[in-house]
Amino acid sequence: MDFTYSEEQQMLADSLRRFVESEYPFAQRRRRAREGASFDRTIWSQLAEMGVLGLTTPAQYGGFGEGAASRLVVQRELGRALVQEPVVPCSVMATAILAAHGSAAQQDRVLGAMATGAQIVVPAYAEAASRYRLDAVATRAAPVGRGYVLDGAKALVWHGEIADAFIVSARVGDPATGEIALFLVPRESRGVSVTGYPTMDGQRAADVKLDAVALGADALIGAPGEGVAALAHGVDHGIAALCAEAAGAMERLIEITAEYLRTRRQFGQPLAAFQALQHRMADMVVQKELALSMAYVAAQALDEPDARKRRRMLAAAKVTVAKAGRFVGQQAVQLHGGMGMTDELEVGDYFKRLTMFDPLLGDSDHHTASYAEAMED
């Protein structure tokens, strides 16, 4: 896979950077996050017009059919600006699941609407006791007539508060041994209730309760028993996108810190003149470059046919990028001195986002264990 930017990819990166500088000023982002409004319909529509939402959607459904290399370009730029909109859960994860496992009718009805920004669909699979296991599912789908009735609860649904529909995992039949399947559940379905709340990094999540939600047979995504594989496919794409996003956030945080050191003066000279601080900045750059390299590995893993090798590549990337993000974030706070601990500077927003990168889609302990299991297999 060639990660050298093509002319089209460079143009996309440049246009995205200009867009966030002019239409997504950081002061506006911070204000919205503090007011609990992490989603802006106007920004979402503009991202759709730029092709971000339909980037990897197949062309027959109104998308561009691009691959992981182009997605890395986009997520890296979105990460630099800490864009809060639900690009990863909707345009990456849900799109990947529906494009690979959805029925022709589901793809025709939903993928095009997602690419234009008219509909937001997010996965809802985590439960209170599931940790990061995709197969730990207590939600039940009881076959009734030609359809299903869903009962259960999902937790930490990323951007679930503004979703139009959910991709819900549930056990078909027996609540202990039934096969796990995925269902496309419209938000307006009777029995669906959503409770939103803020996350540490200024984004939003939600708990989704399903109380006797009646669905037709056409709500089933794929076949019963394919649910875990379909979810894993979406999570894999989400991990690769998050790695690129984190690398972009680190890149921008280093720029912010370097500018602060050039401006802040101590003992008659800028802090950037002190060799010890130069060494610490150099260490931050090394970690950022390592993270970007592993983001390339994660993107390449999506085309890896060997499942065990793919697991190892994605797990290694997630753990390495999380470690680099913690290092860069902590160093940036320390290099800003006492100001770095306040809520006045942008450095705090980047630090919180990079800290939250670790638990998203599996923390370092989970992926270290996953890597070890793949090695044993």
TrEMBL record:
The keyword Iron does not apply. The keyword Protein biosynthesis does not apply. Residues 225-375 form the Acyl-CoA dehydrogenase/oxidase C-terminal domain. Its cofactor is FAD. Residues 125-207 form the Acyl-CoA oxidase/dehydrogenase middle domain. Keywords: FAD, Flavoprotein, Oxidoreductase. Residues 6-117 form the Acyl-CoA dehydrogenase/oxidase N-terminal domain. Belongs to the acyl-CoA dehydrogenase family. PANTHER family: ACYL-COA DEHYDROGENASE, ACYL-COA DEHYDROGENASE FADE28. This is Alkylation response protein AidB-like acyl-CoA dehydrogenase. It comes from Paraburkholderia unamae.
